[in-house]
Write a structure and sequence with these properties.
Blueprint: H1 2-6, H2 12-41, E1 45-46, E2 57-58, H3 62-80, H4 85-107, H5 111-128, E3 134-136, H6 139-144, E4 151-153, H7 156-175, H8 182-201, H9 209-235, H10 244-262, H11 265-271, H12 273-286, E5 299-301, E6 306-308, H13 316-324, H14 329-355
Antiparallel strand pairs: 1-2, 3-4, 5-6
Helix pairs in contact: 2-3, 2-9, 3-4, 3-9, 3-10, 4-5, 4-10, 5-7, 7-10, 7-12, 8-9, 8-10, 8-14, 9-10, 10-11
Length: 358
């Protein structure tokens, strides 16, 4: 980034945004420390099921990171005088999800209600969306159907896809959970991939709307990474706080909003390969074919301190442990995050290979 800035290839607004995000990071750390005893006093707490006998841990710390993120983004919006309706609608959708997440942490909302509210939360962004609804046609399809068209307008079906995928994003990080640091860690890895993607798209000599979309995506993702790194410092194993549904819904919606505003939901879907796999593994239990407990956690061996996969729990974490064998909680989290990073790198490879066939 420093080299790009010195060469004039990194716009000044990114440099200013990074400075603002550094202050946001440290202020989030301060607020988390101040909020932890308040959450315990209010009874918003939980126990670390992988560390029996420990004291209650404050939960729903996403109630700090969410508002801090929104405040930082609104400040940047004022500084750069951003008037794009999609930008405002995206902020509204994120605000709705922060509220839903905190409500779920406090009231333990049923799944069907959360899915319904997720649809409601994304509606402001979908209504305000004014971008292209065209999808590219692969070269082999053009050859088979003998057509010269390079893209096709799918209209309302594109918005339906974006809506469904946004709802998936808001819930998928929530169900790939149960290990200290995993929810925040996977969000950070995907967020970094999104940032790299948009840095690749930047071209200061290009004045097209494509550059504006990349700029807006960067302005949205940098504050998210700032608050997420602050949360990770307290949530990494052994966790001092739990992020709660407030953070997981908030992070999923931020990533969805960034992809919609930046016009790359298909690329985000590739970044979400681990979450998609976890969802597919979970389908038998989600549809009631097998009994499902609330947490679906691996089993702790108190003598070795390692976690072992459980056959009755159908999710990526237990499947992974059954393949690689028992692991400590920290190593399990690191394994899943490395897998997340590998999938993101593979997504970039798929993007470039796919272009060769257009």
């Amino acid at each position: 980034m420093i080299n790009l800035f010195q060469q004039g290839a990194l716009p000044l607004y990114i440099f200013i945004t990074i400075v603002v995000c550094i202050f946001c990071y440290f202020f989030t750390l301060y607020l988390i420390k101040e909020t932890m005893p308040l959450l315990l006093k209010a009874g918003i707490q939980g126990r670390d099921l992988h560390k029996p006998g420990t004291d209650p841990i404050p939960e729903s710390i996403g109630i700090v990171s969410g508002p801090m993120y929104l405040g930082c983004v609104i400040l940047l919006q004022i500084v750069y005088q951003i008037k794009l309706s999609e930008f405002n609608a995206g902020i509204t959708s994120i605000c709705f999800m922060v509220l839903l997440g905190f409500m779920d942490d406090v009231l333990n909302v049923r799944w069907r209600v959360k899915i319904y509210l997720s649809f409601v939360s994304i509606l402001p962004l979908i209504v305000a969306y004014s971008g292209s609804t065209y999808v590219l046609i692969p070269k082999f399809v053009k050859i088979v159907f003998s057509t010269a068209h390079t893209a096709i307008d799918i209209g309302i079906f594109y918005k339906i896809f974006v809506t469904l995928f946004s709802v998936f994003c808001t819930n998928s990080i929530n169900i790939l959970a149960g290990v200290n640091g995993l929810e925040v860690g996977q969000s950070i890895v995907i967020g970094v991939a999104v940032l790299v993607l948009n840095l690749f798209r930047l071209n200061p000599s290009d004045a097209s709307m494509e550059q504006e979309y990349a700029r807006f995506s960067i302005l949205l993702i940098l504050p998210f990474l700032a608050v997420s790194f602050a949360v990770l410092k307290f949530n990494w194993c052994p966790a001092k706080v739990f992020v709660g549904d407030t953070y997981t819904y908030f992070s999923g919606m931020v990533l969805a909003v960034v992809a919609v505003i930046g016009h790359f939901p298909e690329m985000l879907a590739l970044f979400f390969i681990p979450q998609i796999l976890n969802f597919l593994f979970s389908l038998p239990q989600l549809f009631g074919f097998f009994p499902m407990s609330r947490h679906r956690l691996p089993k702790l061996n108190e003598k070795t301190g390692k976690l072992a996969g459980q056959k009755q729990h159908h999710n990526l974490i237990n499947f992974w442990l059954r393949i690689v064998g028992p692991k400590t909680e920290k190593m399990l989290c690191i394994h899943i995050l490395i897998f997340q990073a590998v999938c993101c790198v593979a997504a970039f490879g798929i993007r470039f290979v796919y272009r060769e066939f257009l």
